[in-house]
C-alpha cells in the first residue's frame, strides 16, 4: 500500500505513521525526520536546512525532491510506503505525482488527520517541554500553522479531486485515532 498522511503540524502524522508502519509492514518516510537526520549529521544539506526549520519555514522544494528521489530509489519502498510531511505545497504535490508515476508506484490513498488549531498548539507545547525540538517554540509554531493554512491545506483538494482522500478525526487517544485510520483503509485493500 502506498499511502500519504496529511495534516497540520501536531495533527499526529508522525505518531500514527510509526504505528501504521508496524501494521502494514512498509517503510515510514518522514521528510521532517530525513531533514533532522541531515541536521544531526552536520551535512551540507543539514547546515542549509537547520535555520530554515528552526524558524518554522519550508526547506526548498528542490532539496526535498532530491531527498525523496534518493529515498524512493532504495529497494525497501518496492512493496509500498507511508509518506509523512510531504507534499507541503502544490509544487511538491505535482513533483511527487510525476516522480511516483515515473517509478511506476502511483499513490493509492491519502489520509488527512483533522484536529482543531487550539489542540495542535497544546500538543506541540507538550512536545516542546518533553523533547525541546528547535522548531516547537511559539513563534515558529505560529509560522508553521500559517504556512500549513496557506500552502499545505490546498494540497488536500488535489487528493480529493483525484478521489484518493479520506478525512479522519484526529482527536482522541492514540489507539482511537489509529483504529479510525484502519477503518478508513479497510475498503482499500489487504488491511484488517
Ligand atoms: P515535521 O517533522 O513534518 O513536523 P510536524 O509537521 O510538526 O509533524 P510531526 O509529524 O512531527 O508531529 P505529530 O503531528 O506526529 O516537519 C518539521 C519541519 O521540517 C517543517 O516545519 C519544515 O521546516 C521541514 N519540512 C518537513 N517536510 C518538509 C517539506 N515537505 N517541505 C519543506 N520543508 C519540510 O505530533 C505532534 C505532537 O502531538 C507529539 O508530541 C505527539 O506525541 C502528540 N500527539 C500526536 N497524536 C496525539 C493524540 N492523539 N493525542 C495527544 N497527543 C498527540
Automatic annotation (TrEMBL):
<comment type="subunit">
    <text>Monomer.</text>
</comment>
<feature type="binding site">
    <location>
        <position position="92"/>
    </location>
    <ligand>
        <name>AMP</name>
    </ligand>
</feature>
<feature type="binding site">
    <location>
        <begin position="10"/>
        <end position="15"/>
    </location>
    <ligand>
        <name>ATP</name>
    </ligand>
</feature>
<feature type="binding site">
    <location>
        <begin position="85"/>
        <end position="88"/>
    </location>
    <ligand>
        <name>AMP</name>
    </ligand>
</feature>
<dbReference type="Pfam" id="PF00406">
    <property type="entry name" value="ADK"/>
</dbReference>
<keyword id="KW-0067">ATP-binding</keyword>
<keyword id="KW-0963">Cytoplasm</keyword>
<feature type="binding site">
    <location>
        <begin position="57"/>
        <end position="59"/>
    </location>
    <ligand>
        <name>AMP</name>
    </ligand>
</feature>
<dbReference type="InterPro" id="IPR033690">
    <property type="entry name" value="Adenylat_kinase_CS"/>
</dbReference>
<feature type="binding site">
    <location>
        <position position="172"/>
    </location>
    <ligand>
        <name>ATP</name>
    </ligand>
</feature>
<feature type="binding site">
    <location>
        <position position="127"/>
    </location>
    <ligand>
        <name>ATP</name>
    </ligand>
</feature>
<feature type="binding site">
    <location>
        <position position="133"/>
    </location>
    <ligand>
        <name>AMP</name>
    </ligand>
</feature>
<keyword id="KW-0547">Nucleotide-binding</keyword>
<feature type="region of interest" description="NMP">
    <location>
        <begin position="30"/>
        <end position="59"/>
    </location>
</feature>
<keyword id="KW-0545">Nucleotide biosynthesis</keyword>
<comment type="function">
    <text>Catalyzes the reversible transfer of the terminal phosphate group between ATP and AMP. Plays an important role in cellular energy homeostasis and in adenine nucleotide metabolism.</text>
</comment>
<keyword id="KW-0418">Kinase</keyword>
<dbReference type="GO" id="GO:0004017">
    <property type="term" value="F:AMP kinase activity"/>
</dbReference>
<feature type="binding site">
    <location>
        <position position="144"/>
    </location>
    <ligand>
        <name>AMP</name>
    </ligand>
</feature>
<feature type="binding site">
    <location>
        <position position="36"/>
    </location>
    <ligand>
        <name>AMP</name>
    </ligand>
</feature>
<comment type="similarity">
    <text>Belongs to the adenylate kinase family.</text>
</comment>
<feature type="binding site">
    <location>
        <position position="31"/>
    </location>
    <ligand>
        <name>AMP</name>
    </ligand>
</feature>
<comment type="pathway">
    <text>Purine metabolism; AMP biosynthesis via salvage pathway; AMP from ADP: step 1/1.</text>
</comment>
<dbReference type="InterPro" id="IPR027417">
    <property type="entry name" value="P-loop_NTPase"/>
</dbReference>
<dbReference type="InterPro" id="IPR000850">
    <property type="entry name" value="Adenylat/UMP-CMP_kin"/>
</dbReference>
<protein>
    <recommendedName>
        <fullName>Adenylate kinase</fullName>
        <ecNumber>2.7.4.3</ecNumber>
    </recommendedName>
</protein>
<keyword id="KW-0808">Transferase</keyword>
Amino acid at each position: 500500500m502506498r499511502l500519504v498522511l496529511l495534516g497540520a503540524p501536531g495533527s499526529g502524522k508522525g505518531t500514527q505513521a510509526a504505528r501504521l508502519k508496524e501494521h502494514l509492514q512498509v517503510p515510514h518516510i518522514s521528510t521532517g525526520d530525513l531533514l533532522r537526520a541531515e541536521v544531526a549529521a552536520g551535512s551540507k544539506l543539514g547546515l542549509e536546512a537547520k535555520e530554515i526549520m528552526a524558524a518554522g519555514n519550508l526547506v526548498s522544494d528542490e532539496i526535498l525532491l532530491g531527498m525523496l528521489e534518493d529515498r524512493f530509489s532504495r529497494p525497501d519502498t518496492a512493496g509500498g510506503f507511508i509518506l509523512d510531511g510531504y507534499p507541503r505545497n502544490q509544487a511538491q504535490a505535482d513533483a511527487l505525482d510525476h516522480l511516483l508515476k515515473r517509478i511506476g508506484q502511483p499513490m493509492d490513498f491519502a489520509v488527512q488527520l483533522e484536529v482543531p488549531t487550539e489542540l495542535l498548539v497544546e500538543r506541540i507545547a507538550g512536545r516542546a517541554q518533553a523533547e525541546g525540538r528547535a522548531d516547537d517554540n511559539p513563534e515558529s509554531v505560529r509560522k508553521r500553522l500559517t504556512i500549513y493554512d496557506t500552502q499545505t491545506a490546498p494540497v488536500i483538494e488535489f487528493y480529493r479531486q483525484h478521489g484518493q482522500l479520506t478525512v479522519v478525526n484526529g482527536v482522541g487517544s492514540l489507539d482511537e485515532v489509529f483504529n479510525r485510520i484502519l477503518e478508513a483503509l479497510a475498503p482499500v485493500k489487504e488491511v484488517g
